[in-house]
Amino acid sequence: MNLTLIAWLVLFGLLAVLALRKPAWGVALYMLTFFACPPYWWWGESLGDYRWNLYGGVILLVAVLLSRLSAEDDGGEKSRGQRWVIWTSIAILANATLVHFLLAADHEVSADSYTLLAKFVLLFLLIVAATRTLADLRIILLAIVLGAGYIGYEATINDRGQLSGGRLEGIGAAGVDDANGCASLMVTVLPIAGVLFLTGRRWEKLLMLPVAPFIINVILLCNSRGAFLAAIASAVVFLSVVPPPARKQAIKLLALGAVAVWLLLGDPRIIERFTTTFASEEDRDSSAAGRIEFWKSGLAMVADHPFGAGGDGFKKVHGPEYLARRDVHEARAIHNGYINEACEWGIQGLILRLCFVAGAAVLVWYTIRSCRKRDATDGMLLGAAVLASMAAFLVTCLFGDRLDSEWGYWVPALAVGFARLFDRAAYQVDDLPEEMEEDLLPDEEELQSLPV
Question: Could you tell me if 153 and 4 are in contact, meaning their C-beta atoms sit under 8 angstroms apart?
């Protein structure tokens, strides 16, 4: 047993104990088993093929249940918008249940995707329940960013993974099976790392100095056109939604990110691949051209199965038939999360998913406006980062079957937690670090109007 594995087991045990005192540590434990799951790394091979991710999730569930039974404060009453997002997630699961049991052509094939969807909805609800204070939120944000930073460290410093066709493969996390998936995960997490650098305490700022470049480097090594476009969209959204009082800091952050990209951008194949995104139909490479054929095949399936065909309904069941009509004789994914969602869980399932994400985005938007009225700069920046992460994720879903990825549930959970904690009536003075009080605390008149 090597030292890295021993350290991982000690950290797992420590977080498990802390989770029983504060559920947010249970979320950190789960992220540990996601980003650094032993079977995925050289140092964990001797441990055997245990389901550490499941164990982390069970401990998180127990921690949340114990916290509820002890009648601890749950972070305040939920607003109508927060309840909308929560109930929409439950509606997504209810719809998938009906499609899986009533419409799936192959229940055995559909079962894997359905089980994952149920797990991710539960995870979303657990993260929301575990986010009760600003300290909880920062624990969860740090756990996600440090997990992504660990993957970046392994790829950048220890040269883990293999470059295949100019793209980083063979590195990632649980459920991340290729370069596109890894890039989607990293570009979704990147805005959170940036805002922690801006709003964090001194040690958090120092921690983000190497972590953010590690994450950027993995995005570049993965060489995913969808991720490049997602990064651009993320930056535009971040700068657009940040109110003027916080825009100067936002511009500084984007400038630092641009410098980091320029310093890390050393492979000409990355630029060459990115430019093909905007090429004419004649010059577009076979990968991009083939993706359009997959999309058309998926849309044809949606027309024939508008209420869905169950999990992996296109890739493993009906897809070969529709692809063969376009002279594609191999089983392939659609490479579009939105079309794939409609193929699996129906048009109604896609609508529910979009309502889920849109509801979370609107929730954050109104909370940012509330923060602006109080000149809560950190709140404005954090809200903008959550929206930027959401935008990055949604763009990557245009180029891959990522809409059902679990980080697509993390961000709405962060959105609900952010709204609960930064909403006017939810401020708890005792939860604020001293260095954040000037930016985050309401003025004296507002404090007097808050409910006891």
Answer: no
Structure tokens at 254: 């984007």
Distance CA 18, CA 431 (A): 18
* Tens of pLDDT, residues 395-429: 999 988 889 999 999 999 999 999 999 875 444 43
Q: Measured between alpha carbons, how far is 325 from 431 in angstroms, rounded to an integer?
A: 60
Which helix (DSSP H) or strand (DSSP E) does residue 62 occupy?
helix 52-69
Place of tokens 């009760």: 132
pLDDT of 260 reads: 66
- Given a contact cutoff of 8 angstroms between Cβ atoms, the answer to whether 271 and 312 are in contact is no
Mapped onto helix, strand or coil, the DSSP state of residue 2 is coil
Instruction: Considering only residues 123 and 315, tell me which one the structure prediction assigns the higher pLDDT.
Output: 123
pLDDT tens, position by position, 200-243: 888 998 999 899 999 999 998 888 888 889 999 999 999 888 87
Residues in the chain: 452
Six-digit token pair at 54? 């499941």
**pLDDT at res. 233:** 92
Residue 432 has a pLDDT of: 41
Backbone angles phi, psi at 163, to 5 degrees: -85, 115
Count of C-beta atoms within a 10 Å radius of residue 42: 13
And the tokens for 13?
Answer: 């045990």
Burial 305-326 (b: 16+ CB within 10 A, else e): bebbbbbbbbbbbbbbebbeee
Of the CA atoms within 13 Å of residue 300, those in its CB half-sphere come to: 16
Burial of 221 (0-12, 13-18, 19+ CB in 10 A): buried
DSSP structure class, residue 79: P
> What is the pLDDT, as a whole number, of residue 438?
41
Q: Which residues, including other chains, have CB under 8 Å from residue 328's CB and lie 6 or more apart? A: 290, 293, 294, 297
- Cβ atoms 311, 276 nearer than 8 A: no
How far is 311 from 347, CA to CA, in rounded Å? Answer: 14
Please give the single-letter amino acid code of residue 375: D
Q: How far apart are CA 158 and CA 260, in angstroms?
A: 19
DSSP state of 247: H
Find the helix packing angle between 134-156 and 202-222, rounded to 10°.
50
Token pair for 433: 């670090």
